Amino acid sequence: MSNNDLSNYLVDLYQRNILFMDTMRRRGNDMVTMTTQPSANVLNFEIEKILEGKDFNQPINYWLARVLPPQNIPTDSSKRPYVMQDPRAGRGPGISGFKKESEIGAALQYGHPVYFIGFDADPIENQTYSDVIRGQVLFYQKVSELHPNSPKLCAIGNCAGGYMTMFAAMQAPKLFGPVLIAGSPISYWNGTLNSGKPMRYIASEIGGAWLTALIGDIGGGRFDGTNLVMNFNNIDFDNFIWGKQYDLYKNIDTSSERFLSFERWLSSFGDFNREEILWLVRNLFINNQLTTGQLTTDDGISLDPRLIDSPIITFVSDGDTISPPAQSAGWIADLYHDVDEIIARNKTIVYCLNHKVGHLALFTGSKVAKCENQLFVQNMDSIELLPPGLYELILDVPDGLDSCNSKQLEARYVSRTIEDIKKLGYNSEDDNRAFATLAKASEAWLSNYNNFIHPFFTMYHQNYIAKMTKYLQPLRWNYWVFAEQYNPLMKIFSQLSSKVKQNRKIVTNDNPYLSLQTQLADNTTKFLSNLKKIRDNHKEQNFFMIWGNTQVQKFWDTYNKPARLTPSQTKTDLAEIMALWQSKINNITPVNDELSALIRIMMLIINLHNESRGKADKDIKAATVDYVIDWAKQQYPNETTEQLRQTISDQFTVVTYNLEKSLVALAGYLTNNPTIYNNLKVLATDIATKVEKITATELKAIENKMTQIIKSHTK
């Protein structure tokens, strides 16, 4: 280590500190700006508001905007409109489009009209969550009215925006095409032990819903959204207190703008009304009612996900610590006993599992997730026309692919079972009982709080207490301390940074003092990461030690009682549904038209091909569905999407559950229509060999098997 090395390092250290502090100054100033704009958002796109929720009969603080496309990317109004909704979870809207490579960017890239449902920082006085749920439908109605000749809209909801989107689709199913939810905690109790994902235990730490009520009372009927944000920050506290700051410091010359763009969203705090947040916390997070089939709004509107008619796509990731796959996909196993029930109810459910990205990256369009976002848009038509069932959408991305070139990507729909969903993380009955015990305790404590403490706030609360509490919130001061408005000394860093940039001297990577800095930083990162793991393990152990305790459960009268009666367990209406389904199969077995014949042939080829390869799973390529769709639209231009989907659904069902009779019926139809037979054979062969990649030898074997089955049933 020479004196020259030390001198170079100290110069870089001084300059780097100046640039870092200037970035923090700008971060603080941005926070002040964002919090003084009630409708602030972080969208990287221009928008035009077209409907204000505050004008509804029951006013809400939400609004609908049209996203204006870049000048070089025209929008085709006849294409399927996309409606995006961001989470309202303590922060403002816009995270789904704060980068060009995002869900919004992907939809615009393919020429689709895009709309965005945002919200103001301040709720309307006396606004309830039920008001918000009802009001959402009006936004989707407006979009449908603006595009009467387009395919049904695609609704995309991220995190908390996911269940808001589903609520709307439950109330007005005929308005919706595919519904995509990304990282949305639909079944909140579900999880896996020792996973390092402790979000589901937060209710235990705060003692249930009463603390939420108290914070709302202290806020004068308003729940300060920074309290929710603090919960998220505490989950990954190593990144909150060290990781992101050091990453900025280390890459200060290149990362400032990216850091600031993200921090604008992180500091765009928004509030809830007390009753709003209480409804959400009690029903969705503590009592986990969304997948029971029994949740209703305050005025009795059913909120059962099974009411959604259109395909549902759920985008999940193993790297998501906020809404892990167990929560964001486990609802499927809560609602449906098996895949037969999904098919019998004519439902199409698709999940896509990413193995790398974190929660926010699912919808912000990271390098890893942007391919998925583009493929979702590309394949939405084929998803909408998939036969009923449960599928995993698998994207075959070549190794080393840096950009998403649709010609290099291939989407496959692989049939899955309820057991596959449970493998992603699903509670045992004992685990559920622990959460049920906490839920019962929470309701009792909340009742006592509302009876004995809440009245004092309503009688004696002074507004200045709410303002003071908000002003002293630690997370706000994490930003304000660097803002010029609150710390005039920060102005000096603006002047100093300009001089530093003019004469920047970056230390070389081989400097030994930089190596020592890196080593120290790495050790700090490892220490905090290990500390977080210890914290997470203790949270989990403490939760089950308390709420899984036999004596505690006996006290709350939950011991040896069903913890949670979901439709998949109670088999609600299942017998009736299955009987109607069997009757339907018998009715749709005959073939009556050319389109049905083609689809049945393709389904037969795919089924028998998978069977010949020893595959239990049905693997349908998106390209195959697209091929059939294009042909059907050319041959049957008057066929609506709903009619086409029903035809595909019927043929898939017959082939899957009435294979031999479906072949005999098909043969009878084609025998009576020899011209159609020849045309369809050429078309089916083309699809099988070129798209499905079935060899001529394999195809011949499939034809022979079809012939054998037909002969054995027509003697």
Structure description:
The chain is α/β, with parallel strands linked by helices. It is 55% helix and 10% strand. The strands form two sheets. An eleven-stranded mixed beta sheet has the order 1-2-4-3-5-6-9-10-11-12-13, sandwiched between helices. A two-stranded antiparallel ribbon has the order 7-8. Helix 27 packs across helix 30. The longest helix has 36 residues, at 512-547. The relative contact order is 0.10. The mean pLDDT is 90.
Looking at this protein, list some descriptive labels.
alpha/beta; eleven-stranded mixed β-sheet; 715 residues; two-stranded antiparallel ribbon; single chain; Rossmann fold; globular
What are the SSEs and their pairings?
Elements: H1 3-35, E1 47-52, E2 62-67, E3 82-85, H2 103-109, E4 114-119, H3 129-146, E5 153-158, H4 160-171, E6 176-182, H5 202-205, H6 210-218, E7 222-223, H7 226-235, H8 237-250, H9 252-266, E8 272-273, H10 274-286, E9 312-317, H11 325-328, H12 331-335, H13 339-344, E10 348-354, H14 361-364, H15 370-378, H16 380-384, E11 389-396, E12 410-415, H17 418-423, H18 429-452, H19 454-460, H20 463-471, H21 474-480, H22 491-502, H23 512-547, H24 550-555, H25 567-570, H26 574-588, H27 594-612, E13 619-621, H28 622-635, H29 641-657, H30 659-672, H31 674-691, H32 696-712
Parallel strand pairs: 3-4, 3-5, 5-6, 6-9, 9-10, 10-11
Antiparallel strand pairs: 1-2, 2-4, 7-8, 11-12, 12-13
Helix pairs in contact: 1-9, 1-22, 3-4, 6-10, 6-18, 8-9, 8-23, 18-23, 27-29, 27-30, 27-31, 27-32, 29-30
